[in-house]
Amino acid sequence: MASDAPTPENNLILRQMNGMRRDMVAVSETNARVVELLGRMNMRLDEMSERFDGAFSRIDRRIQDLHGDVILMENRVLDAITEVRNLRIRIDEDRPEAAFAGPADSRS
User: What is the CA radius of gyration of the chain?
Assistant: First the structure.
């Protein structure tokens, strides 16, 4: 009777079950490797995201600094223009002939 017991060698269903078991083990191992690789990829993407965030914040600070510098330079240009206008007015006021000259002569 022991020889009548079903074994994978004499039973097609048991052979198919063993094959399915091997396939499931292979799929489980592949799945575990995929999960591990995805975890590593996630960590690397997080690191890259942090580096990009840091780089973009540095760029943003530099742009803000440049914006402040541009505003300062614009104010200096406006001050220089005002000073030139005031200087012209003072020169015109200091010239005695400008007071007696007509409108056409005062522009020369």
Answer: 44
